[in-house]
Amino acid sequence: MTFGFDPADALGPDWREGRWIGRIDRGAGPTPVLIENGVVHDMAMIAPTVAELVSRGTMDASTGEPIGDLDALGLSTGGIPKLLSPIDFQCVKAAGVTFATSALERVIEEQARGDASAAASVRGRLEERIGGGLARVEPGTPEAATLKAALIEEGLWSQYLEVAIGPDAEIFTKAPILSTVGWGAEIGVRSDSTWNNPEPEVVLLVAPDGRAIGATIGNDVNLRDFEGRSALLLGKAKDNNASCALGAFVRLFDDRFTMDDVRRAQVTLRIEGEDGYELDGVSSMDQISRDPDELVRQALSEHQYPDGFVLFLGTLFAPTKDRDEPGRGFTHKPGDTVSIATPGLGRLINRVTTSKAAPPWELGVVALVRNLAARGLLAA
């Protein structure tokens, strides 16, 4: 299945007012581009990668080669010019358990030991005891410590509640550099997973100096059965071929689009299965327990990222609508179409397959450097 690329859909109706950064392949290999006033500018002669373009701070599209209006380029995921994931050498980081609802769902996975059929009873018991209490607690405060003590006394404490209301956020590495997939690509879940779901999120692009300079939308595909059996399986639950998708381009912050727009974002999700199953959800960023700037700060507290990084901010969405057997909730099936959207950043659309069946990841660091060298783009 292929999807027709429409900038007004993929980037939002105000796409011409935004400034965007990303990558396309014009036939020779990955090329960083900047989009201003709807016009695409090839920036490869200024900086051969998105990471270097961001590092240099050379965000002036007029210094690049204008190659045409975005809606006239005929971008696709298979032909030329080809639309690629908008990042390259940036590390891919993610913040977990940043919403009260998702915190409860992680506890449910843990107590159900990854068994979807046991989730309903665990969910009922936790909601009866905690309810909306987590949403009213600011992480790291004395009130949070009091709630922690009470839950420990009742035997309800969890490692997931620790990162939900404790002083330290969960920040993990989601995927290797260069392994993310983009708009319209297939996304993969492990072929041996029976309980999994999408995670619709806002994703920040952070420069090497620690400044968040833009945002896009993303899908932090998650395997609930693997992580539920053991948090030590987080790597298998999160990092698989084609399991990390990003929007078509990253919107750069300016006076029309700022971090406050991220804080107010309503991220919607729609799943349409080939079996007729449909599911809709929403993740409201104003319910996040830690501010995006605080999550960036924690990611940088004891680490440097000389090529910058992207940071998934977490999701409120945790699907519980039954798909097959009553009480087993939701899990993906091959062929599902997943759409994630928010005003100002547009819509990311992908089709679900298994990580084994998805196109293999082949353009690694060595291959990209060789490609850039062959194109004469590594000269000083």
Description:
It is a single chain. This protein has 380 residues and is an alpha+beta fold. The chain contains eleven helices and 19 strands. It has helices spanning 7-10, 50-56, 100-112, 119-129, 142-153, 159-165, 224-229, 234-238, 259-264, 292-300, 365-374, and strands spanning 19-25, 30-36, 39-42, 65-69, 82-83, 91-96, 170-175, 186-189, 196-197, 200-206, 212-220, 222-223, 244-246, 250-252, 266-272, 278-284, 309-312, 337-342, 346-354. Strands 1, 2, 3, 4, 5, 6, 7, 10, 11, 13, 14 and 17 form a twelve-stranded mixed β-sheet that branches. A five-stranded mixed β-sheet has the order 8-19-18-15-16. Strands 9-12 form a two-stranded antiparallel sheet. A hairpin with a 2-residue loop joins strand 2 and strand 3. Helix 3 crosses helix 4 and helix 3 (100-112) packs antiparallel against helix 6.
